[in-house]
Q: What sequence folds into this?
């Protein structure tokens, strides 16, 4: 048998399947790979959605905890932890920072002479809501983006609050 005949008769070799059957083996593998990539993308989207909703739930819990602390302070002292409530009108929107937060934390403050802790938030970390003490001059409560919470309070006790957006957000 001549060497040139060997190469010409490659299709007749018993140990190598014909080209059409090789494609029959590769196609399902390609479909499995494409399906796996698609499943991974869908799972990533679903996981991101659940993580985002979990973050929103934690922020709602942080806001509810802050509101409960303010309500308990009001029940104890008969006013909100504002140094001069007479300076405000019927309702006020203030950032949850400074002396107000110090007072409801139960730290040394003229607004909370009995040092009763009404609010015990976790420390804010990157992507987590909580108490931000990174600036020594101002203690504040923040959401997961680092934005200060704002409180809208009914100082006259009329039982209604207007929906308003704070004029300045720091």
A:
């Amino acid at each position: 048998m001549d060497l040139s005949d060997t190469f010409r008769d490659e299709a007749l070799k018993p140990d190598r399947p014909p080209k059409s059957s090789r494609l029959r083996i590769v196609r399902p593998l390609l479909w499995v790979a494409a399906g796996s990539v698609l499943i991974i993308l869908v799972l990533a989207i679903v996981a991101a959605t659940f993580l985002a909703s979990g973050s929103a739930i934690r922020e709602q819990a942080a806001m509810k905890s802050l509101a409960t602390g303010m309500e308990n302070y009001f029940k104890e002292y008969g006013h909100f932890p504002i140094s001069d409530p007479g300076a405000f009108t019927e309702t006020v929107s203030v950032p949850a920072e400074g002396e107000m937060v110090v007072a409801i934390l139960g730290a040394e403050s003229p607004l909370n002479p009995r040092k009763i802790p009404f609010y015990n938030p976790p420390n804010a970390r990157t992507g987590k809501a909580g108490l931000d003490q990174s600036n020594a001059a101002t203690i504040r409560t923040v959401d997961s983006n680092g934005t200060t919470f704002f409180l809208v309070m009914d100082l006259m006790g009329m039982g209604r609050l207007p929906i308003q957006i704070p004029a300045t957000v720091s």
In short: The radius of gyration is 33 Å. The longest helix spans residues 19-77. The chain has a mean pLDDT of 75. Helices lie at 3-8, 19-77, 99-105.
